[in-house]
Give the backbone structure.
Amino acid sequence: MTQNLTTGVFILLSGLALLILLFTKLIPKTKHDTDTKALLTVFVLVGVFLVAMGSWVSLKG
């Protein structure tokens, strides 16, 4: 495996782990007030961007 592929896979897996944690543990157990919705939106966007960046790095290398 090349370094780009390894790095991309690790970034991709960390994004997937974050999204799985958010959707299975964190989102169902929180009260959904305004601040919490904003933070959850930011965390979901970070997870999506991690998945996108990991797949881009993996496919580029």
